[in-house]
Amino acid sequence: MSYQKGDIIMRNRPWAYVLEDKHKSAYCHFCFRRPIEKADQKLRRCTQCLFAHYCDGKCAKSAWKDHKVECNRLSLALKSGADIPECNIRLLARILMKLARGERSDPPDACIPPSERTYDSLCTHADQVELLSQIKIPSESSNAHPNPLPVLSASIESSVLQITAFTYIIEKLVAFLGKENMPTDKNVLKNAYSKLIVNAMTLYDGAWPYGIGAALPLGATRFDHACKPNADYMIRDGCQIVVTALEDIASIEDVRICYCNSMEMTPQRRATLKEHYYFECQCAFCLDENRDNMMRSLWCPEKGCGGAIPCTAKFIPLPCTKCRMEMTGKDTYVRGAVSLLSEINEKVAAYTALFENAESSPELVEQQKASNQEITQLYHKIKSTIHPLNVFYIKLAVHLADHDSPLGWKLYLEETEAYRYYHGFSAFLGIRLVLQGGFQLASQLLDEAAKSLEEAETILRVTHGKDHPVYKDMLNVKDVQIPQMKHLQHMTNKLPKMPKS
User: MYND-type domain location, by residue (predicted)?
Assistant: First the structure.
């Protein structure tokens, strides 16, 4: 079967899924809907664990089978003051509970078109991992590290990462579930962990370019990866993974979705894919050296040029994209730019960690304000040297835009251009354009806002569909609110001016 741009390729309700902790009170934990903030439409909190939230009793009842054991353990954590485990640990716990109930496949209506995939048929890449030692499930009170489990035999570095991750997860999992809920068969845990790291998907709801949850689906795992995908997916219509064609596709075997952040450079993307999925990507993006060179680009220093100086992996500058001026890596301008890139990388990492601190305090708020001031100063320092398509520049701009920078919507303009260049026609670009249009509207730039939302409409009609709330809201702003505001603005301009006193 072939697909045209905008066609829905698959609808698949995930076999196991959880909501990110930070979104626990914003979305229904069963259907992932985000209700309108009205008195009669707020989510109802689970009275026992006080963690899960649901649209109504119907969603709560439907979720109970998966939430029952989790609810009890979350209640105990709440009473003892223990930390709530992070998303991937709660997802692994749900997988183990489903296996304990004998659930290893989807119900008949969970995937359209129907899929024959089951939990047992999911790939683990077991031929590329080796069991280094026997699993030991620690008791809840034990501080000892369990022996490591699956690791890559081909790479010491990857092995160390897998050992560390698995050790950490097992300790947290036992503390959360309790030893009585852990599987007695060591292979059950080994396979669950392996299948999770190879097949799990980040869940997006199409309202924001960040994940709101994680899932282990069955049907949707059939799609292979490309950093330049021809299909996209998001959560729609009550926690269904909806896969949509971004271009014409010959058959379902040719469908490719993206497993990683395509705005990372090729070495980073390949390392991530190798670590989690055990393959080296050879897609169009990975083979495009110029794309990576632009990710390290600088502004051309030639006055009035406005071109970019792409740089190789060793930061050897290439000819300007506009005036073709050539430089060398020994030029003071280039060496100074490389130093700035190192400073950006260090400071953004430090500031991101500061803002991710869940425990808020007056001291932390002051530290965050100070960090925003420092990174804003760094932005002004680099903007005449580092090109906006440089990934280090993008990371800095994203951090500022996400944390209420006084630079405001102008940062979104820069981010949108980067999304357009690196993502192309995608849901991510559509969402950025909606955000950009919103900021322009708030600044009374009505023509600019209309233009942004016109481009967003073209994309969202394909990626989200006409029934998606984000598409409907965007269309209302573009076709109703902006014309009304333009009319009001026009009428105001026609009013006679008050004489000066």
Answer: 28-71
Q: What is the pTM of this model?
A: 0.85
Q: Clarify whether residues 210 and 122 are in a common domain.
A: yes
Q: How far apart are CA 162 and CA 72, in angstroms?
A: 30
Claim to verify: residue 395 and residue 454 sit in the same structural domain: no
List the beta bridge partners of residue 8. 244
- State how far the Cα of 87 lies from the Cα of 196, in Å rounded to an integer: 12
CA dist list (Å): 109 to 13, 105, 420: 9, 11, 37
Same domain, 440 and 366: no
Please write the tens of the pLDDT for every residue from 8-60. Answer: 999 999 999 999 998 999 999 999 988 765 555 789 999 999 999 999 999 99
367 is written with which tokens?
Answer: 């530290």
Complete edge-to-edge strand list for the sheet that includes strand 8-12: 111-112, 8-12, 240-245, 231-236
Same domain, 414 and 483: yes
The torsion defined by the Cα of 473, 479, 480 and 481, in degrees rounded to 10, comes to 70
- 67 vs 211: CA distance, rounded Å: 21
Based on the fold, state whether residues 433 and 394 are members of the same structural domain: no
User: Range of 382's domain?
Assistant: 295-406
Output the furthest CA–CA distance in the chain (Å, rounded).
90
